[in-house]
Q: What sequence folds into this?
């Protein structure tokens, strides 16, 4: 079983307590009524579907219940790092992020 | 003459691990922002710890930090009204949500030298890292539970009422397997 570090509990815990919640850093448009159908479609459905480090949301649903963000390598399924919701998207080229 | 031998697994099983259904208690779910935490601690007569998994106890009440702004409060069954009133009286000073959930859950105690082994059959947590006196929300099979460690070899499970027969059945299967030496 995968172990995932929850940034709110500050513990590394079994995957069975967590739920995946889609790609991270997708901002909801301020005024959806101003969007074209294509732009609204892109917001709702179009995702990057990366091969490699993927920024995604998780929820510690059977623990502290918080949503947070994670970077997971979609090839190896390895979690590179996790961070609290609302924090800026980390730059993976910095040494701290590489930890 | 025919002889037969029967083996009472239930009697043996109790020697290694016991499963008990516990009497009802008052249970409350509390949500409050950081600024209101000390106010609610004073109102309830029990500090609200600020680290997930920590508990605080005072005057027969216990507060468990479940999340950054979420606590589980438990007390004697006859204290429910007093707790609800204390929350209502503090509302103007510290807005919060205090919801009675006494009837939502039932509790089981799992105790004995094989208690941790029995829980490990269905709980993915590393129980060695759950300190005595601590507690956490986690899962047992697919049911969400709050797991309390009362002593090295004694745990309590708070289970949503509708999942309780499922959890109890799994515990009893594990108990029989432990008794049979599996
Ligand atoms: Zn958590």
A:
């Amino acid at each position: 079983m995968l172990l995932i570090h929850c940034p709110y509990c500050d513990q590394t815990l079994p995957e069975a307590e967590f739920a995946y919640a889609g790609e991270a850093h997708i901002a909801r448009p301020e005024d959806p009524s101003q969007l074209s159908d294509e732009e609204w479609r892109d917001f709702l459905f179009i995702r990057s579907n990366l091969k490699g480090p993927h920024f995604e949301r998780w929820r510690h649903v059977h623990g502290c219940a918080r949503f947070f963000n994670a970077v997971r390598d979609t090839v190896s399924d390895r979690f590179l790092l996790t961070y609290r919701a609302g924090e800026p998207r980390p730059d993976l080229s910095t040494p701290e992020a590489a930890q | 003459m025919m002889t037969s031998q029967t083996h009472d697994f239930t009697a043996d099983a109790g020697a290694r691990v016991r499963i008990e259904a516990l009497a009802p208690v008052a249970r409350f779910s509390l949500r409050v922002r950081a600024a209101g935490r000390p106010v609610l601690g004073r109102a309830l007569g029990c500090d609200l710890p600020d680290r997930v998994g920590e508990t605080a106890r005072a005057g027969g009440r216990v507060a468990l930090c479940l999340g950054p702004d979420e606590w589980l409060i438990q007390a004697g069954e006859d204290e429910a009204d007093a707790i609800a009133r204390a929350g209502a009286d503090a509302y103007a000073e510290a807005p919060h949500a205090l919801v009675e959930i006494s009837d939502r859950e039932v509790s089981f105690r799992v105790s004995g030298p094989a208690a941790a082994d029995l829980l490990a059959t269905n709980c993915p947590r590393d129980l060695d890292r759950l300190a005595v006196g601590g507690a956490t929300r986690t899962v047992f099979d697919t049911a969400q539970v709050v797991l309390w460690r009362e002593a090295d070899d004694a745990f309590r499970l708070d289970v949503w009422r509708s999942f309780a027969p499922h959890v109890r059945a799994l515990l009893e299967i594990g108990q029989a397997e432990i008794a049979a030496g599996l």
